[in-house]
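Q: I have two molecules that I believe assemble together. Could you output structure tokens for the complex as a whole instead of separate predictions?
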Amino acid sequence: MGIVWTSLWIAATATALAALIGVPAGVLVALARFRGRGAVLLGLNTLMALPTVVVGLFVYGLISRQGPLGEWGLLFTPAGIVLGECILALPIIANLTVTAVTALDPRLLATCRTLGGGPARVGLAVVLEGRHGVLAALVAGFGRVVAEVGVAMMLGGNIRWYTRTMTTAIALETSKGEFVLGLALGLALLGVAFAVNAALFTLRGRTP
Amino acid sequence: MNAYTLHDIRIGHDGRTVLTIPELAIPAGAVTALLGENGAGKSTLLHLLALLTAPAHGRLTLFGEAVTARNRARLRKGVSLLLQTPYLFNRSVAGNVAWGLKAHGMGRAERGERVREALAWTGLEKLAERPAHALSGGEAQRLALARLLALRPRVVLLDEPTAHVDAASRARIEAILENWVREHQATVLLATHDAPLAERLGARPLRVADGTTLSGP
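A: Yes, here they are, computed for all two components at once.
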């Protein structure tokens, strides 16, 4: 149960932090017309396929004792995993937010502006009006980080009762030949994904 | 005094010019009717005057102040445009009216008062708590009008406000507009095919044809 809880809170925190940056960034990229916008979109698309071990390696370099953030003591801690998973979820949330906002009715912007909305209020209205798409972006980000193993293994170190998550536990049990336990943990992970999607489904059903 | 002056304005879209206005003045405190065929450029002109789009070339002033990229957002607060088919926020009728008032920084008490007043003008007070998306086409247009009039803008721009509603709704919207124009000294620009409505509102006609504006009927 401890492993499930660790997995859940680490993934939820990483997703929340990524949303704080990714949703406003996605809205900005979707609405603003600036030089290099195409390159930013291409970059976001590319980063969606970012391999977890590459993120793990990059953040490892940052937070290892010799790294620029080494003094913070984040390596092999849950906070270290949160940092890595946040980087992993960020392009997914930003990119899917861009898609959600771009799909909104173009009259929304004209309406907000002609009613006197400034950039922040217009941005908020866009997120609220496109809440289903933004919520789907958050779920996709959460799904990506709760199921990943590379970052959790490299930055968390798979320490029992501390940084061991469901995915690193599955990897460990499988390597020990404990297939049944590994499979049970896999099913638990699937159950978590199902519960999150069911919650989203219910929420979407309730909101108009 | 003029609400707007336009000098050598050119508006482009996808690399081609869609509207040219050599010289135009729109008087303040009066109703002006933009008359013209579909596609003549009436909506384009209204979007320009609503400060939602910038001209590719030329000079536009609003109440004597030249509109620039820096002051556009501030000046826009005094101008409101009613779209031909309005966009309603996914919230209640009252919430829709309150949105613009919040954007103008109005306090809760005054906002509540303005919302009630605007809904009373437009006959929507009994529907205040109803979700906006549950309204009929005519009610939706009246809500959009209430949302706009609640702001008491100096300039009201109306893009064919009765084009997509039934006869009963058209009569109600026309009555609201007639009352409002009589009671307020705002500058009103009305794009319409409905010449009798323009006449009832005492509007000065301004013809838009083939992507250029021509004064007079």
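A: One point stands out. The mean pLDDT of chain A is 93.
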